Amino acid sequence: MKSALITGVTGQDGAYLCKLLLEKGYKVSGIYRRISTPNFWRMMALGVLDRITLIPADMADSSSLSEAIRVSEPDEVYHLAAQSFVGASFEQPIYTGDITGVGVTRLLEAVRLYSSDIRFYQASTSELYGNNPEKFLKETSRFEPASPYAAAKLYAYWIGEIYRQAYGLYVSNGILFNHESPLRGLEFVTRKVTDGVARIVHRVTKTLLLGNIETKRDWGYAPEYVEAMWMMLQEDEPDDYVVATGEAHTVRELLEVAFSHVGLDWQDYVKIDSKLMRPLDVTTLCGDTSKIETKLGWKPRTRFPDLVKLMVDADMDRWERHLNGEIIAWDAPNNPEINTSVSREALHR
Prior knowledge:
By secondary structure, the protein is of the alpha/beta class. The protein folds into two domains: about 5-180 and about 220-245, Rossmann fold (3-Layer(aba) Sandwich), CATH 3.40.50; about 190-215 and about 250-285 and about 305-345, UDP-galactose 4-epimerase, domain 1 (Alpha-Beta Complex), CATH 3.90.25. About 40% of the residues lie in helices and about 15% in strands. It is built from 13 helices and 13 strands. The chain has helices at about 10-25, 40-45, 60-70, 85-90, 95-115, 150-165, 190-200, 220-235, 250-260, 290-295, 305-325, 335-340, 345, and strands spanning about 5, 25-30, 55, 75-80, 120-125, 170-175, 180, 210, 215, 220, 240-245, 250, 270. It has a seven-stranded parallel beta sheet, with helices on both faces. Strands 7-10 form a two-stranded parallel sheet. Helix 6 links the parallel strand 5 and strand 6 (about 170-175). It starts with a strand and ends with a helix.
């Protein structure tokens, strides 16, 4: 039986990866950060929480990472943990650099000192490309990071390359473009929109505040992207791969699909808030998947409109069940922005 260790196990990708690896017969361990209220709702929603071993550790603490490697004895390490919200990286640039960037060095050192046979997946990001003008971005495209988050991820990308070359470690970078699901956090625009649609339909709120709606992103379906992660580590040699759909859509298009799915016109409910604009924004990101399709046979299966609709349906269902008094595993009730916007009408339905 293979053993895998996942950092960032409480996140969207971590939960879906747990499910995938368990289905493949792995023994799965996951690193989580000790906080007063553990964030396990995603694993609970997928029914995997009681099937994995949880190990407390912190990307800022080398000794805890070494202990996690020793306890889990992994054949494969999937490093997904990060301060992963671009907007927050402008507010916390030093923290983002330490956790998202230097934290990878701490983990790679723990791997190097324990066993050179461990296969290591590094979660890279399309944000590395910034405002690179190429229409379709591939593994050899120039990196032009445009946020503290992207800069930290660039460090992480290159330190992985260095450990691969200097120490012979098996390190593969997955340059994943935006990938979404009903398990996406509410701080990300896709889920903010789909949850906002559900709240408007259920009369929990009347408006949705957004920043720049003209940015274009290549949005795919997260469960398919974790399959790509696993496929990378099954190859004989480590390598770097772009994972994307090859299609870019604006936030405006996201709004059109999401609101029209429930019979509404987004322009009647969305307001632009200048405070939500970033100091520096990436205008367009779209990936070229030629390499991963040719070498690994991976292709995206879920198209953009279907992805948006399934996320809207999931949030519609959650809010209906929540307002009817059912206790379910999700994040919205613990979000202060949403709690303060719940109307009396919705609470007394």
